[in-house]
Specification:
82% of the residues lie in helices and 0% in strands. The N and C termini lie far apart (83 Å). 0% of the residues are buried. It is elongated. The protein has one domain. The protein is mainly α and 76 residues long. It has two helices and no strands.
Amino acid sequence: MELNLVVEGLKFMVLGMVTVFLFLVLLVIVLHFQAKIINKFFPQKIISIKESSKQDNKALIAAITVAITAFKNSKN
């Protein structure tokens, strides 16, 4: 009697796991096609980013260094 209950429980477990797996596969497929459809009607715009020059970076680093030094000196 108990063996039948265990076997029946295993059947329900496998059925539940297969159901969840198939649902997740279906969800992945639907989201994949949804992304293709959305990208077809609303393509992503390519944004070009201007690279800052080395001189700008040096000036920024100098300004940050001065600010940190002034902050440390104001604590004393």
